[in-house]
Amino acid sequence: MEQHSTAAGNRSTTAHGGRPASADARAGNRTAPPTFGVEEEFFVVDPRTRGILSRGSEVLADARLADGRPTGEFSRAQVEANTPVCDGAGEALRSLRAAREEFGRSAGAAGLSVVASGTPVLGDPASALVSEDRRYTRIAAHVGALREALVVCGCHVHVGIPDRETAVAVSDHLRRWLPFLLAVSANSPFHAGRDTGYASWRTVTWNRLPSAGPPPLLRSPAEHDRIVRALADTGAILDQHMVYWDIRPSDHLPTLEIRVGDVAATAEEALLLACLTRGLAAGALTDVHHGVPAPDIPDHALRAAVWRAARDGLEGVVPDPLTGEALPGASAADRLLHAALPGLLTNGDADLTASLLDRVRVSGTGAARQRAVHARRGSLADVVDHLVAETREGLA
């Protein structure tokens, strides 16, 4: 599960530290590239059985990240790394690579491996031990058997936004692109020893939680707060930090967290998701500044589009929840890149992002590559070995 999602006291620098919005943005310069940061969650696995193990504390105890911070997760079978607040893509990629390399080293020293997959390929997530944290214990008791839905790994992108009202407005603008971002990042086709039939099973299992999934159209911070109070009044959440929407404005800092993606198999794909997300957010900031209203996409249409993107990934059909079109994956990738392009040009990331997206088109998404490895010999152990290598070495 995502620690920053559940723990009120999370210390991630991307979410809560440093300088979440650039000085130019705070001063009202809407054309300044927003700062951003990335959080990634990983599974700890046994190199012999390839199943997940509740030994994340051993990996964390020896991990030394120069410019980020390793943290625990909901289950002891997971670890998390956070980049610092970044101004550019190069800085983010260096941090992403360094964290994976260091986790691989510290895991290896303990006789373990670390893999980037949205769900555990092998091993029983229901048996993963809950981390020794009072809040996690309360959440586990509160959700009952749904605790298994929390043993998943995501990639969360935080974008610096100048104020909460703007963050809510940008959230409304970004809703349309959730299925597209999910399709690009899909990396969880296998779960506990079986092929789920989905490209992102993490999305399906995670969205069983009552406060998860695409956010509603908010329109204002007051409406956001009203909906959160209603969730709390029903007992669906223990507090506001259990709002697990795919886009979530911070309640105390000028940031917006976009959390729809599976953890990326490689650092390069994590950067791709971050660049696309920041590009869309930068473009939305311009629209908000000029008074362009966010599209009123019905909740049911958006949830259905997210479900289809989770099932097919970029290799199938991606519905556009605004137009109703069922787009082939290649067309969906083109539409996503085109939508992000104004922001990517502002951020200076256009060429890099287009190149990374082309590499994913050629090699397939993380989910497609997992299935290709499995098709060779029918071995899920081979899939885990493949994930270990990609987590460490990057996109070939």
From TrEMBL:
It catalyses: L-cysteine + L-glutamate + ATP = gamma-L-glutamyl-L-cysteine + ADP + phosphate + H(+). GO terms for biological process: modified amino acid biosynthetic process. Its EC number is 6.3.2.2. Residues 1-15 have a biased composition (Polar residues). PANTHER family: GLUTAMATE--CYSTEINE LIGASE 2-RELATED (PTHR36510:SF1). Residues 1-34 are annotated as: Disordered. This is Putative glutamate--cysteine ligase 2. Keywords: ATP-binding, Ligase, Nucleotide-binding. Pfam families: GCS2. It comes from the Bacteria. Belongs to the glutamate--cysteine ligase type 2 family. YbdK subfamily. GO terms for molecular function: ATP binding; glutamate-cysteine ligase activity. ATP-dependent carboxylate-amine ligase which exhibits weak glutamate--cysteine ligase activity.
